[in-house]
Design brief:
Elements (H helix, E strand, L loop, with lengths): L18 H22 L1 E2 L1 H5 L1 H10 L6 E4 L6 H9 L34 H14 L6 E6 L6 H13 L3 E7 L6 H15 L1 H16 L3 H4 L1 H16 L3 H6 L3 E7 L3 H11 L5 E7 L7 H5 L6 E2 L19 E2 H15 L3 E5 L19 E3 L4 H13 L3 E7 H4 L3 H9 L6 E7 L14 H6 L5 E3 L4 H13 L5 E6 L2 E2 L16 E4 L4 E5 L3 H14 L4 E5 L2 E3 L3 H10 L2 E9 L4 H11 L6 E6 L9 H7 L4 H10 L2 H19 L1
Parallel strand pairs: 2-3, 3-4, 4-6, 5-6, 9-10, 9-11, 11-12, 12-14, 13-14, 17-18, 17-20, 20-21
Antiparallel strand pairs: 1-7, 8-15, 13-19, 16-18
């Protein structure tokens, strides 16, 4: 027998469901999310917390006509399931499968894509403006979580529509606080009253009367009545003050897991004019005990056992730990040693490996919320006081703070140390999260130093180097994943702007950076079997590059190859070519990096294959550039074999 979920062919069918059926549908969605994420991984706790909100919105809106914008997409799994993607939901995060975030090219019901937070109200407002310009009548809805509401972009959009007064609805999905029973009871009463037809008719008629009355202007009647309305709501419902002062009508708080409450409030407000906010209190991980107890742990999950909540262990070699942990451990040592060391992150304490440092150094481990620009400018202010700020942010998220890096840090030559986690391909999160542009956007900035480690031990050395660097901003980028080499004593000393020669060969120079260094060595091994001998260089520094080494090797090489896990435009390889051009060295070159397109989700290995960055592909591309060299070598070998045979 088909479940209720399996019986739905179109999301519009949900509009015919009664409360009992909607409650059952919500439960089936919850089980489906747990079932799939336990196998594929994904964003569990946030999506479980937004199930009833999703069902209620689909009951009252037709999103083949109306518009819905989810913030980030962490909350959107139930929406994906209920808008035609349940059958393929098992492919979540896999190559060619359902994406972990909303995406316009996946479904016509995904009206706006986002992997970065705080964008939904801005995008929804743009849709509302466009709707009115085209004289259409559909509704526009945004769903934003309390975490995403810490981002400045959300406040800019709230402020903008406070003056535009466009008709749109924001569902404020607040899972950061608990509901006090007494306050909750009063709040429910006020919300029912504030959203009722009687109240809204009374509100509009009294304000209309005040506007038309001949004595209104002299007595300030309209202003007085407006203040009475606003003050009454603000007195009993403090969260409303923020929204009401920005020009939005506020309804809340309500229980975001009580379907009857959600259905009633949405029905009552959806046809009201102007900007509307519904404040719904939810619980992350709702319906799955382990996620309810630790929503932080079950936010973004790897495969786990649904019955006991235990994560399935990945096979790791030896004592391998993540690059994030390497950073956290080394930074902890520096913080023990020097009280001037401070670290800032933007809602990524766990993701950047510093969550365990916060209890030890609560005044020096600062989470600024989803506010990357503020994190950077705040660190610049810290640097002026003589402290040593480190800014730990994913490569993809630091893109949001580019102006702050240039204007507030680099122009003033302040020693801020940027730690760029998740550089390169990141796997199932896909193109919104790939760290593919940092070498490009940082390399163009004057006064910036850029370093890239080949392993964990070199990362530790580079963090020590950054700690001592005081002449301007410095960035270190490192990948998602694990590293087994942690012994700093095995790493030759770092010298500013100098590369490391790993092997010498007379035919080819493989000039590699970061994760590509190991691949360069493997390619060199394959080339050697063909009689082609390659030099392998670990660049270490992307800015400044080791100009002397590039010039010396470039003059004699048959081919110079640059290798990077960054976009091919404007990155490490471009810097190498600039040096060759500057010194008028004309030799065959080959730039190997990520192509000029967005690489879709999949495993990191699949993404490297798609980008033609695996060892065999690189080896083949190098050979294609060396036909004459290979031809001569093979001819020489044949002659030697004949000579020995005779």
């Amino acid at each position: 027998m088909k479940s209720l979920l399996e019986s739905i062919s179109q999301p519009q069918e949900i509009q015919n469901f009664n409360l009992r059926e909607l409650t059952q549908l919500a439960q089936e969605c919850r089980q489906r999310i747990i079932e799939v994420t336990s196998k594929c991984g994904g964003h569990l706790a946030s999506s479980l917390g937004a199930v009833e909100i999703t069902v209620a919105l689909l009951k009252h809106f037709d999103f083949s006509i109306d518009r819905l914008v989810w913030d980030v997409g962490h909350q959107g799994y139930a929406y994906k399931i209920l808008t035609g993607r349940n059958e393929n939901f098992d492919t979540l995060g896999k190559c060619g499968g359902i994406k972990k975030f909303l995406s316009r090219d996946e479904s016509s019901y995904d009206h706006f894509g986002a992997g970065h937070a705080s964008t939904s109200i801005s995008a929804a407002l743009g849709m509302a403006i466009g709707r009115d310009l085209q004289q259409k009548k559909h509704r526009v809805v945004s769903v934003i979580g309390d975490g995403a509401l810490t981002g400045g972009l959300a406040f800019e959009a709230l402020n903008h529509n406070g003056s535009l007064d466009k008709n749109m609805l924001v569902i404020y999905n607040d899972n950061g606080i608990s509901i006090d029973p007494n306050v909750g009871a009063i709040s429910k009463l006020l919300t029912r009253f504030a959203s009722s037809q009687f109240y809204n008719r009374f509100r509009e008629e009294t304000l209309d009367f005040a506007e038309k009355a001949p004595f209104s202007e002299r007595l300030g009647l309209k202003t007085t009545l407006q203040k009475m309305h606003d003050s009454a709501k603000s007195f009993f419902s403090p969260p409303s003050m923020l929204f009401e002062q920005l020009g939005w009508r506020y309804f809340g708080t309500i229980d975001g897991h009580n379907l009857q409450e959600l259905l009633d409030i949405i029905k009552q407000v959806k046809n009201l004019d102007g900007p509307i906010v519904i404040h719904a209190i939810t619980q992350k991980g709702k319906g799955y005990a382990f996620a309810e107890e630790d929503a932080y742990k079950y936010h973004g999950v790897t495969p786990f056992e649904p019955l006991d909540g235990k994560f399935k262990k990945k096979k790791t070699s030896g004592q391998a730990i993540s690059y994030s942990q390497v950073f956290g451990n080394k930074l902890g040592e520096l913080m023990e040693r020097d009280e001037s060391v401070v670290v800032l992150t933007a809602a990524m304490l766990s993701g950047t490996g510093i969550v365990n440092l916060q209890p030890k150094f609560p005044d020096r481990v600062l989470d600024v919320g989803i506010a990357e620009g503020h994190a950077v400018t705040c660190s610049a202010g810290l640097a002026t006081t003589g402290n040593k700020p480190f800014v730990a942010i994913y490569s993809t998220f630091l893109q949001r703070a580019l102006d702050h890096i240039i204007h507030d840090v680099a122009v003033q030559q302040l020693p801020v140390r940027f730690m760029l986690d998740r550089a390169g391909f990141v796997g199932a999160d896909g193109p919104t999260h790939h760290g593919m542009f940092d070498l490009t956007y940082l390399r163009m900035i004057p006064n910036m130093t850029i370093m890239v480690p080949r392993n964990g031990a070199e990362l530790r050395c580079m963090i020590e180097f950054a700690y001592n660097h005081e002449t301007g901003p410095l960035a270190i980028r490192y990948p998602r994943g694990n590293t087994a080499e942690l012994d700093e004593n095995k790493i030759p000393p770092l010298e500013f702007g100098k590369a490391q020669i790993l092997r010498k060969g007379q035919n080819v120079v493989l000039f590699a950076v970061g994760t590509m260094v190991e691949k360069a060595e493997q390619v060199a091994d394959l080339l050697e079997k063909q009689g082609v001998y390659a030099s392998v260089i670990n660049a270490r520094f992307v800015k400044p590059l080791d100009e002397d080494l590039i010039v010396n090797l470039g003059r004699d090489a048959k081919l110079l190859v640059s290798l990077e896990e960054n976009t091919i435009h404007g990155g490490f390889g471009s810097g190498v070519l600039e040096i060759l051009s500057k010194n008028r060295i004309c030799i065959p070159t080959l730039q190997i990096g990520a192509p000029d397109r967005f690489i879709p989700q999949g495993s990191p290995e699949e993404q490297l294959n798609e980008a033609e960055l695996n060892v065999e592909q690189i080896y083949g591309r190098v050979l294609e550039k060396l036909p004459e060299v290979v031809k001569k070598i093979r001819k020489k070998r044949t002659m030697e074999q004949k000579k020995r045979a005779s």
